Amino acid sequence: MLKNLDFKNNADFVIAIAVIIVVLMLIIPLPTVLLDVLMAANLTLSLLIVLIVIYTPRAIDFSSFPSVLLISTIFGLGINVSSTRLILAKGANFDGKMVRAFATFVTGAGGTEGVAIGFVIFIILIAVQTFVITKGATRVAEVAARFTLDGMPIKQASIEQEYNSGLITEEEQRKKKLELQQESDFYGSMDGSTKFVSGNVKVGIFITVINLIVGMVFGMVLHKEPFDVALATYTSLTIGDGLLSQLPSLLVSFATGLIVTRSASDGQTTIGSNVKKEFTQSAWIYVIAGGALAALGIIPGFPWYILIPMGALIFYLGFRLLQIEKKKEKTAEEETEKKKAPAGPSGISPVVPLDALSLELGYALIPLVDEEKGGDLRERVGRIRRELGLDLGLVLPPIKMIDNSILEPNEYCFKIRGVEVGRASVRMNWYMCMNTGSVTEEIEGEKTTDPAFGLPAIWLTEDQRDRAQRAGYAVVDSPTILVTHLTEMIKSRAQEILGRQEVQSILDTLKKDFSAVVEEANKHFTVGEIQKVMQGLLREQVSIRNTVSILETMCDYAAITKKTDVLVEKVRQRLGRQICLQYADEKKTIHVLTIEPYFVEKLDASRVETINGPIAALEPSDQRNWISALSASIVAVQEKGYLPIILAPEAVRVLIKSSTEREMPNLVVLSVPEIDKEIRIESLGEIKVGS
After folding, report:
1. End-to-end distance of the chain based on CA atoms, in angstroms?
2. Are residues 169 and 218 located together in one domain of the fold?
3. How far apart are CA 409 and CA 406, in angstroms?
């Protein structure tokens, strides 16, 4: 078992052993040699803690600090208890090298005078730690914890707003929320951990008093030492032991003060970097300070040999900083001139990239975006992005919302890469009401058309809303109308939104878990070829979320063909179950229309290959008859309450779609191989086209 235990990497095991040792130190007497080793280790640990804090960019990057603080505090107290036990037991015979060394270093060889001075220095050190560092750190930790917890809801709302606006991805949102929670937990823990530091100082003072008073009693009573000898012995040992316990404690307290006073930064800079940046912001402060020191040195009575050289040094530092500032200004001016310079001989500036998606609003619709006025359009748009990501597998770029003074006040328009794809108008604080077919009372209103589906509707005011609902109308508010229209525009134009960069992002994400599939696809196809297949699927509202199956199918047929239309059909067949379930009812039944064989053959015979795939080149009269017969069949199916779906042979599916795309862009056309074996087919009739 021990052979299989990885002591190097099993940090939890090491920590557990260390905690057990610390607890045992409070009970079991230690030899002086081991005590010296542990004292040196305690001093080293406290020094490491300070250095880690200095070189840590953010406070939460040292998230284990509260736990480390507790362990180091208990460790120090354990050592203090052990040393106290040995000092009281051995007295003048105590041979701890670390304690003796610190005692000699502070008191020197000055006898009683040296002991007194050392004791005073020790008392001052304790006072500094108690009333300055520890108390200040405790207060700062309390305030930081309170403000962090109070500001947490606002920060969470800000993160949600960034996500809904498309400024950050879902992964970035989760990361920011996790960091926010970690920050809250950290400062909450620090608020409690500082109490350990404060308690450690108080206990250290108590132990010091015990060492001194009880030690003198032990020396005079048990060891039969004279008063002056006992005083000198135990005062010296108390100072040495106290310094060895308080110095690490002082370093840890200092580290605590540093980490809780850390200001917000970019997460990349350390304390040293911030200090350097802030102390070199202006050179004139050093020039003025150097001049002031030099002037002070000229005044009679002042040590000119100190003040004048120091003033000269600071003045020189300011002079060097001035030179650096002038160099930076010159560089900045040159860069500005380069930016202002014409891009070419004609003076045409570089092309500014267009927004991938943008929603432009008239000024009357601005309140829809203003959260202070109750506008939730950003949140709704964020939900659209998430829902379409799940439905179509398409991760939408951020939708930029801007006001456009050219638009009518109640008007909005949606653009894809700067090109308008839809425009409509809504009325703020009005409601669009549509007859669902079950209206019991006709209500007069301003006639309009639903922008999303082109259905007839009327505008009603707020006071008529309840009446319309009771009458059986579908009542929709303005934000919902806009969002629904936006959703339908995105769905119908999904293939235009999917660019090569989006495809590459999909492949990069997929490569983490399906590297073999992505590598094989990249071997046989370019990003553009994969894009065209995915666009072919999106054109008919087929989700590309199952990217692995799409790529695998493309690779299966790579040796046979690279024609986009063929690959699209093969991928559709691979995704047959997914496609069928989109249109099947709860009994897994699809109700379809078929086409008479005569016209199927005619469609196949009219096939013409183009650069964008095959199309049906029917005669104008045949095309009119075909659309007329199809329209009549669709109306009949819709009257029965069914969605019109055409079932056709594989060879002509794409031809049927191409021949009806202009008149019926949303017509669903399925091929026979796409029908999953678990899906039932029920025919609603056959479309007969007149010759």
Report:
1. 87
2. yes
3. 9
Domain identity same for 52 and 173? yes
pTM recorded for the entire structure: 0.55
CATH of the domain at 504: 1.10.8.540
DSSP string, 441-481: S----EEEE-TTT--EEEEE-GGGHHHHHHHTEEEEEHHHH
Angstrom distance (rounded) from CA 243 to CA 120: 12
Handedness of CA 686, 688, 689, 691 (dihedral sign): positive
Q: What are phi and psi of 404, to 5 degrees?
A: -135, 110
Closest among 622, 608, 599 to 658, alpha carbons compared: 608
Q: Are residues 227 and 291 in the same domain?
A: no
Last residue of a domain, one of 555, 574, 593: 574
424 and 561: one domain?
no
Is 206 within a domain? Answer: yes
User: Helix (H) and strand (E) counts for the chain?
Assistant: 24, 14
Residues 6+ apart with CB under 8 A from 587: 680
> The CATH number of the domain where 593 resides is what?
3.40.50.12790
Please give the residue range of the domain that contains residue 300: 279-315+319-329
Residue 502, both tokens = 């989006």
Looking at the structure, tell me whether residues 642 and 559 fall in a common domain. no
Using alpha carbons, select from 297, 418, 315 the residue that is nearest to residue 359: 418
Number of domains in the chain: 5
Q: Which of 131, 277, 257 minimizes the C-alpha distance to 201?
A: 131
Q: Is residue 341 a part of any domain in this protein?
A: no
pLDDT at 268: 55
Please name the residue that has the structure tokens 């050093």. Answer: 286
Ranges of the chain whose pLDDT falls below 70:
1-11, 26, 105-119, 132-138, 140-141, 143-145, 147-151, 161-167, 191-195, 197-198, 221-223, 225, 228-229, 231-232, 261-272, 274-275, 278, 336-353, 690-691
Residues 472 and 558 in one domain: no
- Final residue in a domain of this structure, among 574, 591, 624: 574
Residue at 352 is within a domain: no
Give the separation between CA 39 and CA 75, rounded to whole angstroms.
Answer: 10
DSSP-assigned states of every residue in 263-329: PP--SS--HHHHHHHHHTS-SHHHHHHHHHHHHHHHSTTS-HHHHHHHHHHHHHHHHHHHHHHHHHH
Helices (H), 575-618: 576-583, 597-605
Percentage above 70 pLDDT, the chain: 83
* In-domain check, residue 343: no
Do 386 and 445 sit in the same domain of this protein? yes
Interior CA angle at 227 toward 226 and 228, to 5°?
A: 95
From the number of C-beta atoms within 10 Å of its C-beta (0-12, 13-18, 19+), residue 281 rates as exposed
Instruction: Based on the fold, state whether residues 459 and 483 are members of the same structural domain.
Output: yes
